[in-house]
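Why should sequence recovery work at all? Because a backbone constrains its sequence more than one might expect. Tight turns favour small or flexible residues, buried strands favour hydrophobic ones, and helices have their own preferences. The token representation captures these environments compactly. In the example below, the structure is given first.
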């Protein structure tokens, strides 16, 4: 397998922990590295106040663990 894992790998790793998350986990994957985080910023800005109130954290990892 390449150094860059498919998006489903994150979900597999989370489920392998064997515990139910206390907070909702929402995974978002962007198709390419974003200059200026435009897609991530747009996504967060598009959430309603109700959705934002349930958001615990927004973590944006770009090529985490990649030798690039």
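From this structural description, the recovered sequence reads:
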């Amino acid at each position: 397998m390449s150094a860059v894992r498919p998006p489903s790998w994150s979900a597999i790793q989370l489920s392998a922990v064997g515990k139910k998350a206390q907070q909702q986990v929402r995974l978002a994957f962007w198709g390419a590295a974003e200059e200026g985080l435009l897609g991530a910023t747009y996504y967060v800005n598009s959430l309603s106040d109700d959705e934002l109130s349930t958001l615990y954290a927004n973590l944006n990892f770009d090529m985490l663990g990649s030798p690039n």
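A few observations help interpret the result. The mean pLDDT is 75.
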